[in-house]
Design a protein that fits this description.
The complex is a heterodimer of chains A (279) and B (332). Chain A has 279 residues and is an all-alpha fold. Helices cover 77% and strands 0% of the residues of chain A. Chain A is globular. Chain B is globular and about 60 Å long. Classes of the chains: A mainly alpha (279), B alpha/beta (332).
Chain lengths: 279, 332
């Protein structure tokens, strides 16, 4: 696909208004609030910032937030791909219903999701009571956090992969088969490269969403310091203790870390795209 | 929803301020006082109308005590604050200078018209035989209490547990810390406010015992059924004093200083005290207590000033970042 270079004319007129609007919009809606976060935390001095973000319970919460979001993102990628595959490639009764169900986590207030998941997974809950004898405890553990984040993240992957899979040329798969490729080869060398950018996008979205998720997690996590406190909860906690600078310091670290991670995912995506264009 | 409530109240209060008509007061309070102030508001409005001939309309805002104080600091136009602990009103005085630092000496009894204490709510029949504090640290007992860093009630609970251990062990601080650490090891979930913890315990069926305000425990019995829960009052507990104050600058801006003052003074009158007792707040007046003879079991009380040297010190030592509460969790 040919790209329009900066200043070179494109088919549609109006590059400058569109470009200026983009810059203005990004500044107003994204950059200015974010810089306020940094300024506020910097105002308290680096000593306070460092003391806040290096406190053991804060470090533990970063580990949980990033770790659980990563796991939830990966689970969403695998399960989300499966769901998208089923929805695109098969016809079955109730398919429209299943398709609509996928979006439900988008629409549901997250607190509702949290409360529902918690009552399902406590030791007396519908699901929890069968897991308890196996020694698996979900509610009020880190596993519970992952469950909630996976629930939230699934639609991002499904909705990114679904259209790509729908557009994929099935003749490629047939050609591969006629040339003697095994099923495994067809998946890894034909289908997977096509959906890889979409999977990456879905992963990035699910991961980013999971990092910031608050409503559903605080119900199922139990919020025990050092164990199941997520970073957003600590931010809220700091605010309630009048420690605005501390809250923004924790937020800044999350912002920087997630920005770097998303930058990395985008770079990876660009590389795969270039790689595919080259082929 | 919870968060939007103070905002909504602020909007309501703000938009109608300058309109002629009744005086409007906004009472910013903590979590479990909804029912109490609903009745107080109606009774005060009647009394104010009879006395001055003018109408007064009172709106309420509820939430975790710390969060409510923060909203007031951030500009929620509260004419009066009725919070869970003096430290939160101190913060408003200190950070936003909306009322003088000596606010607590302006009304009788340290500006606390009612007191309360921390009791245990257990499941019907008391299957885990929880009678006193020591039963809470036994293995296999799950205790529900909110996070003391964010909940005022939970701070009282924490200090109640600490104080009784201190008394039992003749002032041995290390033993008190050990007791509290063991107690929190039995806590499977820390909600951020008192109502959240009540919901966790009562509606989601988690835990064997809920540490909570006396009034919250009895309200839960009334609302959720005496056939499901029982309240257990420990022999020794803390005298919790949730204070009230007029927010001078805000009330003056609204021209409501007089009504705001009268509103808080009403809490100390016979009628105000009786409404308090009816809602399981321990009234200061002996007559009001006499009207409900079996309502308030005898408890051997200690105060925060006696054992902890006041709120400021208690807050700094126990609940600030890096304080004892953090240490308890960092240790295991």
């Amino acid at each position: 696909m040919p790209r329009t270079n900066f200043r070179s004319p494109s088919v549609l007129p109006g590059f400058w208004p569109a470009f200026s609007y983009t810059v203005l919009y990004l500044s107003l809606i994204v950059l200015i609030p974010l810089s306020a976060v940094f300024l506020r935390s910097a105002a308290s001095g680096w000593g306070h910032v460092w003391k806040t973000i290096s406190a053991p319970n804060v470090v533990a919460s970063y580990r949980l937030s990033f770790g659980a979001s990563l796991v939830a993102g990966l689970v969403s990628v695998v399960v989300g791909f499966l769901v998208a595959w089923v929805l695109v490639r098969y016809r079955f009764p109730g398919k429209a219903l299943a398709d609509a169900l996928v979006d439900l986590p988008f629409a549901l207030p997250t607190a509702v999701a949290g409360i529902a998941l918690t009552s399902l997974y406590t030791e007396s809950g519908w699901v929890g009571r069968y897991l308890a004898p196996l020694g698996i405890r979900v509610a009020f553990t880190r596993l519970g956090v992952v469950v909630a984040l996976t629930f939230i993240g699934l639609p991002f992957v499904v909705r990114s992969v679904q259209p790509v899979l729908g557009d994929a040329d099935r003749e490629l798969e047939e050609a591969a088969r006629s040339l003697g490729a095994t099923r495994r080869q067809i998946f890894w060398r034909v289908i997977f490269p096509i959906v890889r950018p979409a999977l990456l996008t879905g992963f990035a979205l699910a991961f980013a969403r999971a990092l910031g998720e608050y409503g559903s997690v605080i119900f199922i996590s139990g919020n025990l310091p050092m164990k199941t406190e997520i970073a957003p909860l600590l931010i809220v906690g700091k605010l309630e203790q009048y420690d605005y600078a501390g809250a923004t310091a924790i937020a800044s670290v999350m912002l920087i870390a997630s920005f770097l991670l998303l930058l990395g995912v985008n770079a990876l995506q660009r590389r795969t795209r270039r790689f595919m264009e080259a082929e | 929803m919870k968060r939007s409530l103070p905002m909504l109240a602020a909007l309501l209060a703000g938009s109608v301020l300058n309109a002629a008509g009744p005086i409007r007061l906004l009472n910013v309070s903590y979590d479990p006082t909804r029912e109490l102030y609903q009745e107080i508001d109606a009774a005060f409005a009647r009394q104010w109308k009879a006395k001055t001939g003018a109408d007064v309309e009172i709106s309420q805002s509820h939430g975790g005590s710390g969060k409510q104080a923060r909203s007031v600091i951030d500009g929620l136009p509260a004419d009066v604050v009725t919070l869970a602990l003096a430290y939160d009103i101190d913060s408003i005085a200190e950070r936003a200078h909306l009322l003088p630092a000596n606010w607590q000496s302006r009304l009788p009894f340290n500006s606390t018209p009612y007191t309360s204490t921390i009791v245990f709510l257990v499941r019907k029949g008391n299957p885990k035989h929880i009678q006193d504090w020591d039963d809470l640290v036994k293995p296999g007992v799950a205790v529900i209490t909110p996070n003391p860093k964010t909940s005022g009630g939970a701070r009282w609970s924490y200090l109640a547990a600490w104080g009784q251990a201190l008394k039992k062990n003749h002032g041995d601080d290390r033993k008190a810390e050990d007791f509290v650490a063991r107690l929190y090891r039995n806590v499977p979930v820390l909600d951020s406010g008192a109502r959240g913890a009540t919901t966790t315990f009562a509606q989601r069926g988690i835990g064997d015992v809920l540490l909570t305000w006396e009034n919250e425990a009895f309200l839960a019995l009334d609302e959720l059924g005496k056939d499901k829960f029982e309240a257990v009052t420990p022999a020794v507990s803390i005298l919790a004093e949730p204070p009230v104050a007029v927010v001078d600058k805000v009330a003056a801006r609204h021209g409501a200083t007089e009504a705001a003052k009268a509103y808080l003074e009403f809490l100390y009158t016979g009628e105000g005290q009786e409404i308090g007792a009816k809602h399981y707040y321990r009234p200061r007046s002996a007559q009001a207590i006499a009207k409900y003879p079996n309502r308030f079991p005898k408890v051997q009380f200690f105060t925060i000033d006696e054992l902890f040297g006041g709120w400021r010190k208690a807050q700094q030592r126990h609940f600030e970042d890096g304080g004892v509460f953090d240490r308890i969790y960092a240790a295991h």
